[in-house]
What we know:
218 residues; alpha/beta; 51% helix; globular; nucleotide-binding; kinase; transferase; ATP binding; Thymidylate kinase
Amino acid sequence: MSGRFLVLDGPSGVGKTTVTALLADLLAEDGWDVHRTKEPTHTQLGETARYGTDDYHGLTLACLVTADRYQHLETEIRPALAAAKLVICDRYLATSLVLQRLDGVDGEFIWALNQYVDRPDLTIILTGDPTRSRARAAARGIHSRFHRGGPGAGQQERERYAEVAVELAEAGFPVHLHDIGEQTPNEVAAELLIQVKLVLGTACGQQPTGEAACTNAS
Length: 218
Ligand SMILES: Nc1ncnc2c1ncn2[C@@H]1O[C@H](COP(=O)(O)OP(=O)(O)OP(=O)(O)O)[C@@H](O)[C@H]1O
Ligand SMILES: Cc1cn([C@H]2C[C@H](O)[C@@H](COP(=O)(O)O)O2)c(=O)[nH]c1=O
């Protein structure tokens, strides 16, 4: 039996970690056996990437985060999927396509590095007001050079994520773009639950009713 693979991605401070936790709880209440995880991982390799962005740049950082992704897939994500779990992952390929490009790496190289990664059943990209997202990330604590820069950097990141939503959809990844607007994390999670059920079906094996595509991404 094989599980399902769900990803939440988007700019720093938009609320990925908060919403991932809430959505994971809602899905568990719905009967899914949920495995929540994050990239970079909390392994030595992952923490080197997360906290090492002042030391590692460009190609080096691209290789580090992708090496962490393959290790994550091999040791955690694929075993959980093989155990029929619903894996929900905070950040994945979309982050690389946005941040590594902002770091000067060619998109073709990023795709080549990631050519053997698993395709999620659904990638949700959260976007929101960049001034608010940046302010939240700053209030929580800055641990990466990608978190620095004011609203201008946040606006650029937001635009890149919207472009990457389309890019992933064109590459055959089911994508849902969700702008949080004024929503609270609970409201975002409740709305996403509906979308997830449309695409993944229900825990008791009901077939999905929606065709996988890039929704809300224009
Ligand atoms: N919709 C929201 N409205 C108000 N505050 C929020 C919302 N979503 C998250 N927050 C708050 O913003 C802060 C950052 O949220 P969170 O860590 O979930 O963001 P993130 O996207 O995972 O950030 P990063 O990528 O930088 O780790 C937290 O303090 C969280 O409580
Ligand atoms: C998955 C991924 C991550 N990064 C970098 C960017 C930040 O330094 C951290 C993410 O930190 P947070 O705790 O989620 O805020 O990792 C990256 O450059 N590329 C990636 O693909």
